[in-house]
Amino acid sequence: MLTTKTRKRDFPSLEGKTYLNTAAEGIPPLAVGEALQQYFADKQDGFDGRKAHAAQWEAAKALTAEFFGLTPAEVGICSCSSEAYNLAALALKLKKGDEVIVNDLDFPASSTPWIQQSCPATVKVWRNLSGALRNEDLVPLLTPKTRLVTVSLVSFYTGFRITLPEVIASVKKRSNAMVAVDVTQALGRIPLDLTGADLIVSSTHKWILSSHGGGLVGVPKARTAEWTAPAGGWFNLEDAFGPKSFESVKSKPGAASFMVGMPNYPALYAIRAGLDYLKGVGVANIDAHARPLVLHCLEELKKLPVEVLTPDEPEHIAGILAFKHPKAEEIQKRLHAAGVHLMNPAGRLRISIHGYNTTADVEKLIKELKAALK
User: Fold this and answer.
1) Distance (Å, rounded) from C-alpha 58 to C-alpha 204?
2) Residue 249: how many CA atoms within 13 Å on its side-chain side?
3) What average pLDDT does the chain have?
4) What is the fold of 33-279?
5) How does pLDDT run across 239-275, given as a tens digit for each residue?
6) pTM summary value
7) Per-residue pLDDT for 186 more than 90?
8) Per-domain residue ranges for the chain?
């Protein structure tokens, strides 16, 4: 991933392509494809294949726990981050008078469950200032009634990276609220320290280079009671087929309650393979390789006639840069025609740089971007 040789070996589809869109879709290494093929081979054993499926499930949980800084028992895997947050909303059992703080740099999955009319809580919005979420703007929103603050470690919109320890300290000092952290745009790209987070959620088809169909959930043991989802199902229940199963049910505690039905085993094979690959490369090595490319790209963007949305603060930068231009759609089309792939969501252009990207990728982007702007 970090050298020309391993890039060609593990990511042959990147030959001749300048791919800068991992924040939307990661390119999986061949090892992930082999894992999916192994799932199919194990599925050929019918019911007996479930032993192999279960082994992959346990391995995926163990790897996720290692990345999150938790134990495997504190990890659950559901179908996507949206499902995880909806189950979290069930678990929290909010009442009228409770308060939830969301922010305007987050992906809808982590904020919209609390904004639905069926949610009785009062929702406050921690608003960004010039693409950044400032701690001093969060503090006035916190009260003894605050039950939850939900935030992404890295914003999908501007790429701004919060200082998580400061956010957690502010929340705990002024309320008894819990902090839910979405690490979708960070997991696999930057080293994580999630100490103090009360709920951790991530998608699986972006920076961890895996497949769709997975939602990684971390529930620290101390928060098991708060994050036990009272959802119907069977895999998430203590005794789904017992003699009193039509009289009462009880969810498994904590993270296990987020896995409500038959596990998505194909995704679990892919998740295990993606995380195993990243562990082998080393996330610290990935960041050491990719971070200079991000900072160089930012410096070049600042020279161009575009509105850079990503705050120019190295300590708050991860793998995403974003900018606006009145002709964003036309620019993206020109870049794509030149073999440069990036995202154009909602009138902005977004660049994401991972461990398989190179200096040549950044130089080609800037060259083609200059041409498109002319």
Assistant:
1) 16
2) 18
3) 96
4) Aspartate Aminotransferase; domain 2 (3.40.640)
5) 999 998 899 999 999 999 999 999 999 999 999 999 9
6) 0.96
7) yes
8) 4-20+282-373, 33-279
